[in-house]
UniProtKB/TrEMBL annotation:
It is found in: Cell membrane. This is Cadherin 18. InterPro entries: Cadherin (IPR039808), Cadherin-like_dom (IPR002126), Cadherin-like_sf (IPR015919), Cadherin_CS (IPR020894). The keyword Nucleotidyltransferase does not apply. It is a single-pass type I membrane protein. It comes from Mus musculus. CDD domains: Cadherin_repeat. GO terms for cellular component: plasma membrane. GO terms for molecular function: calcium ion binding. Coiled coil: none annotated. SMART domains: CA (SM00112). Keywords: Calcium, Cell adhesion, Cell membrane, Glycoprotein, Membrane, Metal-binding, Repeat, Signal, Transmembrane, Transmembrane helix. Residues 1-24 form the signal peptide.
Length: 575
């Protein structure tokens, strides 16, 4: 469209814009702008004296993703200098000029030859110029303009971080926030609703909900129980065009796991249990296990066991295996089937980590009754004493009775018992034992001075089960008899000084006896009457109570008389 004016103007380049909206409507516009005019709302013009450039136009638009067979019309450049005779040549330079955008240099029509993607490039900056075709001189100064790529809804919303894995505690209040998801849309957020996203839940109802604007996922039910269902797969959809029909959509999966809280007390599967324990069980050993079940997990299922009552509270103890959460029953005292055949225990299992928010679901403990049956075991014979000490005189005849051991079968069968000595040591060969009565007798003559004490081992076995053996230690003390005469402690050679006084002690003689003290000292010393008497010496018993050993004193009876000398004595001078 040619626009003229009564004012004096310079040649002006006029742009005819072709704008195609996403609804498919095309608009042609011809815009004339002079150097010294300003258009008012009343249609009047006001003349200015400040000169302006000769051509200005609005922003051009080209629709993205154009798939038509012909180039897409963008707009038209027109100069006031163009009389339609072909003398004006239009030149286009800048981004995409000649490749994406082409111009008819005679008419000024601009076309787009390629399908454009706004998400890759939103606009192109180009330069236009009108020149005289004959002289190649510019009719207008070169000017810059923009071709903007017009958005269409060609991108669906995307969740860049999915799929999601999140947790939320079980029994949470309705409306508890779980996670916020966000979808992005590559379309133009400033134009239409192409990038306006609305969230909805496709899978996961009625357990969860999503805020359509914010994408915040929340619990939609009260008291969701992990023990009833632990895992949920929630599918969230994001749809553009504000959720309207025809909008593009994308989805993501949110895997939600309910985490455990202590909302379940422990429970014994049975109210009565029975346990068999043989009477031969060792003190301190584990004799049984018991377990209460807890539907919770982790520390919420931890518990301790205790014996609260029963006649076996002092005989048994219970501890907790932290790994298996079992109660381990152990023996504190020995069992005896013949004395007590059963025990009753009241056992309690209680949680150790309580959550007071759920105390109304308690109490968080449970009790059961355990009956322990003591099993009869064929036990070895039991000696009447843990050890024996016996006495026998030395020199006793072979076959002399030393003593008797006694063992009995502790079981109700009361089987007969047999006794024997292994004779594996030299000491044991001095004694025999009656296999039926347990009577120990000497098999050799004993000498106390040679062996005063014997240690032997007696073994007892049952006739019905010879493999069950018991052993007992027997100590035998050999009693002394006076069967050894006293002997001089050594051979004596006595030296007498010639100046010894009468009655003076010239030597002390000692004697020993191998027998015990009762049959040894005290001794009586005397001179052998079978030999000639020497009147110069006398022998006298030492009767002093403090005498260190049995002894006799030899006295000089006559002065100056000396017996034989083995060496020359050193005698003190007489006073």
């Amino acid at each position: 469209m040619r626009i003229t004016s009564t004012s004096c103007i310079c040649p002006v380049l006029v742009c005819l814009c072709f704008v195609q909206r996403c609804y498919g409507t095309a608009h042609h516009s011809s815009i004339k702008v002079t150097r010294n005019q300003t258009k008012h709302t009343e249609g009047e013009t006001e003349v200015h004296h400040r000169p302006k450039r000769g051509w200005v136009w609005n922003q051009f638009f080209v629709l993205e993703e154009h798939m038509g067979p012909d180039p897409q019309y963008v707009g038209k450049l027109h100069s006031n200098s163009d009389k339609g005779d072909g003398s004006v040549k239009y030149i286009l330079t800048g981004e995409g000029a000649g490749t994406i955008f082409i111009i008819d240099d005679t008419t000024g029509d601009i076309h787009s030859t390629k399908s454009l993607d706004r998400e890759q490039k939103t606009h192109y900056v180009l330069h236009a110029q009108a020149i005289d075709r004959r002289t190649n001189k510019p009719l207008e100064p070169e000017s810059e303009f923009i071709i903007k790529v017009q958005d269409i809804n060609d991108n669906a919303p995307k969740f860049t971080d999915g799929p999601y894995i999140v947790t939320v505690p079980e029994m949470s209040d309705m409306g508890t926030s779980v996670l916020q998801v966000t979808a992005t849309d590559a379309d133009d957020p400033t134009y239409g609703n192409s990038a306006r996203v609305v969230y909805s839940i496709l899978q996961g109802q009625p357990y969860f909900s999503v805020d359509p604007k914010t994408g915040v996922i929340r619990t939609a039910l009260h008291n969701m129980d992990r023990e009833a269902r632990e895992h949920y797969s929630v599918v969230i959809q994001a749809k553009d065009m504000a959720g309207q029909v025809g909008g593009l959509s994308g989805s993501t999966t949110v895997n939600i796991t309910l985490t455990d809280v202590n909302d379940n007390p422990p429970r014994f599967p049975q109210k009565h249990y029975q346990l068999y324990v043989p009477e031969s069980a060792q003190v301190g050993s584990a004799v049984g296990k018991i377990k209460a079940n807890d539907a919770d997990t982790g520390s919420n299922a931890d518990m301790t066991y205790s014996i609260t009552n029963g006649d076996g509270i002092g005989v048994f103890s219970i501890s907790t295996d932290k790994d298996t959460r079992e109660g381990i029953l152990s023996l504190k005292k020995p069992l005896n089937y013949e004395k007590k055949k059963s025990y009753t225990l009241n056992i309690e299992g209680a949680n150790t980590h309580l959550d007071f928010r759920f105390s109304h679901l308690g109490p968080f403990k449970d009790a059961t009754m355990l009956k322990v049956i003591v099993g009869d075991v064929d036990e070895p014979p039991l000696f009447s004493m843990p050890s024996y000490v016996m006495e026998v005189y030395e020199n006793a005849k072979i076959g002399t009775i030393v003593g008797t051991v006694l063992a009995q079968d502790p079981d109700s069968a009361n089987s007969l018992v047999r006794y024997f000595i292994n004779h594996s040591t030299e000491e044991e060969r001095f004694f025999n034992i009656d296999a039926n009565t347990g009577t120990i007798k000497t098999s050799k003559v004993l000498d106390r001075e040679e062996t005063p004490w014997y240690n032997i081992t007696v073994t007892a076995s049952e006739n019905d089960n010879p493999d069950l053996l018991s052993h007992v230690s027997v100590g035998i003390r050999v009693l002394d008899v006076n069967d050894n005469p006293p002997e001089l402690a050594r051979e004596y050679d006595i030296v007498v000084c010639e100046n010894s006084k009468p009655g003076q002690v010239i030597h002390t003689i000692t004697a020993t006896d191998k027998d015990d003290f009762a049959n040894g000292p005290r001794f009586h010393f005397f001179l052998d009457e079978r030999l000639p008497m020497n009147p110069n010496f006398t022998l006298k018993d030492n009767e002093a109570a403090a005498a260190p050993s049995p002894s006799g004193f030899v006295h000089a009876r006559e002065m100056g008389a000396c017996g034989p000398a083995m060496q020359k004595p050193s005698c003190p001078p007489l006073v």
